[in-house]
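Narrative of activities, Objective 1.

The group set out to show that a structural description can be obtained from nothing but a protein's sequence at a throughput compatible with the screening campaign. Below is one input-output pair from the validation batch, recorded exactly as produced.
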Amino acid sequence: MSDKQKGQQFILAELEKISKKDNILSSSSNIEDEIFKRLMSRKFRKYAANDELKKRIKESIAYRVVRRLPISVTFMQGGFKLWRLEESPEVDWAELFSFMFYSEWLSGVCAIYEPGVVLEVYVMDFIMEVISNYTREETLAYQDSFRAIIKYIANYVPDNLKMQLTTTTDRYGSEEAFWKELDVAVSKFKKVEDITLSPEEITTLELNYRPKKGEILGPKWREENTRVHHAYVQMDSDKAWKERIAEIIAIPYHKGWTYGLHMGATKDSIAKYWIGVGALRERGDSFITTVLSPSQLANTPAIIQDINIEGLNGKNFKRLRLVKSRDNCFV
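Output recorded for this entry:
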């Protein structure tokens, strides 16, 4: 069997495994405890949750279970594909592999709780026009391609796992309302001169920011950008907890962020999928799904293979990167 055939076969087999979850409660667990245990599984979660977050999650579960409502999980993420990547502006294997991973995570809850789970993918779109100069056309292209992979994955998940993509307009009612709330949030946030950035934060800012043609950046542009971004994230997270009853928030690993669960992108990666690319990493005589960050992409030799999986029709699903295991490299 060729590597191409093996890769396709592996991806399809992983999709088929998503809904095959144990539906047996441990003898000492009630349904709320078991849901909490499965949501907090370290196989999927990549960072410890503080006591306040655990309390919120337990309260969310209790609220939903007593009313026989689906567990509500919202994934907060960037509403774009990093402009530096040739895959931009559409999703690629990174988003597909990550949401296969999250579907597997939540299918464990669906197996024991008949009302199931609603997974809301909340893409932060308008804000990217301000802090990274993405165009509306680019963010809309990302949303459309993301909806296509949600529709594709739906063929493989339990019937009681529902996924949906929502945008800033969905959450704030109108674009005008969003900008008004953002202005207030920024005005209440700490001043630019009070912001100190770590080397890691500076690297991230310089990776994400796309200067306008002829733009001359001021000496404090990084701090000004950070002020707007952090005010927005705090505003959005507060809105979720205060206005959206019993919602559990999750996000790919983000240092210093305490509003929700820190998840991996895949079992093999903590890279944010919207600023990375998906690949299959060799593991023994099989593979594991992974997401490569821009720096990993630049330093990881890969074989690019043509691939054709029925139902995956986006421009970024015609080729697939294969990378060696971490202790080997391609010659």
